[in-house]
Design goal:
16 strands, alpha+beta, 7-stranded mixed β-sheet, globular, arginine biosynthesis (chains A, B), EC 2.3.1.35 (chains A, B), multifunctional enzyme (chains A, B), homodimer, L-amino peptidase D-ALA esterase/amidase, Ubiquitin-like (UB roll)
Chain lengths: ~400, ~400
């Protein structure tokens, strides 16, 4: 990636880019007194883009958000609830998502065609719309453009996530300072639910909606799409981006001299959020980062990196701080892409464990110390071509089983 | 499948079909005094067939067995060790597998081109050939044609499997009694290893090697290939079938009036072994049987059944006796095949939980009781076509994590 073209903003959040306010409150969908309704608002119509879950069963909010984005590609707001996914809820669920959209639009004084909706939580139960509606009425009074607004929003989208997930960078586009920020939630459980990923990106860059859509897709493929907690794809996964344009930069195009810098910055934000989701996976004690190089092409490298990071055996071994390269090479061999079986190198951090597909004697004590750390790197070099990829995941622990084996009642 | 065309032989094993002896002993590859070397011998050259792991990293014994089978399709013996997989062992590993083959042939007085070799256990370590060779010399003295011979063999192929796995049926082919039997091992751990499946089928049916190969492949696709313990595919998976022909039936062809009965019997043996492997999966407390009907075709049904049975969230929920249909429908939706999202029915045993993709109110107490049983059925009807499939797996438990997180040292 060469030299870094952006600066990390330590305390930045979705309200840091110019034009955005955000807020959150407790409306009563969660049993405890935690935030469960949040909103991001842009003071101008923002160029918008979104990517959605590939699961065939898509929750009602996704249908409503798709329609909003199809209608000109501009958004003024995104309203989100946690505690109920509004999934598998039929015609009533769709009507409820539309009501959320319309009521948020009215409360915020914007067109309902420019309001996106997202939900996460229990599947198969109808939203308690009286609570949602009462909460939406109060949302305008909670909007803030400072760190607290971003914070309240981040809290409102969590389910059993342990920590808030934000990232923010600034960079220069055509001589103007541009800020990109994001918030995300990851794998939480609210019975009966599965891991849901929601992501929200705000920026003040001036960029058209079609190009933002292309860039968001490209960046998603190397960030959010490269994480695995347990291989399950939710009915509610969604990533929404809004660009206010208030940085007043010369509009970004693929030919813009600072286009690559913008993409780098967006990739940083999305990658940090993705890694935060992986590290905060259910029951996780460690972040696992798998890098595959020397593949025939990037796609082959991605397939292998994701197979390794998705292997229950590899994940269990990392939990146990076990330098178990046999499981890693077995994952390489079943990824479904061609591999030269005689030229594979594997490192755990800096510890070489396999060279040209042959075991290397290594110091077990040093390996144990390394694997006990909170981040474990698995590096595979296929020594074939120049394809490379990185994927992120977490270890498989007793707590994952405990969390997911719990009775819903 | 219509009426059952075979009779189950309760205490039958690989030595029950005419012409077979088997045995096992401890040669010193396992640390404890358990059998770790076994052999099945046929008194005549048996028509033979085999299927192998799809993992690109294939252990040395697989290469040697492939060569033996390519040389006329007849086998007199298969020699197996546990405790060491002879995988990722390079040229020396290949030489060692050939030595096992040659020494077993000499000890048994058969051609080495008619001896198959299989291994399971630690990856990346060379076999202790002095122990293997000494054991092979003693093998002829341990051969028995009774139940004890089958038993000794079954013990010799186990790693951390908890129970021996055998199945046996008889049926009539052209007026003659034909017996089909099998032995298998499943997901065991010997550090650092992954789940390995080895299967061995013996029969006294008269059937040519090419047809046996076709039938074995077809039956494998609906039995061994429909089980999942953790989605990891080993470097050593192998299924070998040997047909002595000593039942003296009119040779089986696809047009033979009892061909379907033979396939049914073979399917029963392979399915029973496959289910036994799933039930005995690492840490498993339950067998999960997933049936999908009403799919566009059998392949679509297979894809969905395997996605459900492979879902860590579904497996954890079954461990926790949680009637979590949300995770099941989410797995249906990400299986990669077309599904009508409005017409899905789901039952847990006889308990209807989803009808036409809408939740059904059910008695949670009754569901809990059902899910606490040692076998859990998940039935999905897509209400689209006539495609159907069944897959087997096990729950995901604390013990799976414990077993697989254990330090290798």
């Amino acid at each position: 990636m060469g030299k870094q073209s952006y600066t990390i903003v330590e305390d930045g959040g979705v309200t840091t880019p110019r034009g955005f306010k955000a807020g959150g409150l407790h409306c009563g969908l969660k049993k405890t007194e935690r935030h469960d309704l949040g909103v991001i608002v842009c003071e101008v119509p923002a160029s918008a883009a979104a990517v959605y879950t590939t699961n065939l069963f898509q929750a009602a909010p996704l249908l409503v958000t798709r329609e909003a984005l199809a209608n000109g590609g501009a958004l003024r707001a995104v309203v989100v609830n946690s505690g109920n996914a509004n999934a598998c809820t039929g015609a009533q669920g769709e009507a409820d998502a539309r009501t959320m959209q319309a009521n948020a639009a009215e409360a915020l004084g914007v067109s309902k065609d420019q309001v996106a909706v997202a939900s996460t939580g229990v599947i198969g139960e109808l939203l308690k719309m009286d609570r949602v509606n009462a909460g939406i009425e109060k949302l305008p009074g909670r909007l803030r453009s400072d760190e607290q607004g971003s914070d309240d929003f981040c809290q409102a989208i969590l389910t059993t996530d342990l920590v808030k997930k934000t990232s923010c960078v600034t960079l220069t586009v055509g001589g103007k300072q541009v800020t990109i920020a994001g918030a995300a939630k990851g794998s939480g459980m609210i019975h009966p639910n599965m891991a849901t990923m929601l992501g929200f990106v705000t920026t003040d860059a001036k960029i058209g909606s079609p190009l933002l859509q292309e860039v968001l897709r490209e960046v998603t493929n190397v960030s959010f799409n490269m994480i695995t907690v347990d291989g399950d794809t939710s009915t509610n996964d969604m990533l929404v981006a809004m660009a206010s344009g208030l940085a007043d930069n010369s509009e970004l195009t693929r030919g813009h001299p600072d286009f690559a810098a913008f993409v780098d910055g967006l990739r940083h934000v999305c990658t940090e959020l993705a890694k935060a989701i992986a590290r905060d996976g259910e029951g996780a004690t460690k972040l696992i980062e798998t890098t595959v190089v020397g593949a025939d092409d990037d796609e082959a490298a991605q397939a292998i990196a994701k197979t390794i990071i998705g292997s229950s055996l590899v994940k269990s071994a990392v939990y146990g701080a076990d330098a178990n390269w046999g499981r890693i090479i077995a994952a390489v061999g079943r990824a479904g892409v061609p591999v030269n079986v005689d030229t594979v190198d594997i490192r755990l951090g800096d510890i070489v464990v396999l060279e040209q597909s042959r075991p290397v004697v290594f110091d077990e004590e040093i390996a144990l110390e390394y694997l006990k750390g909170d981040t474990v790197g698995i590096h595979v070099d296929l020594n074939m071509g120049s394809g490379k990829a990185t994927a992120w995941g977490c270890d498989l622990t007793y707590d994952y089983v405990r969390i997911n084996a719990a009775y819903r009642t």
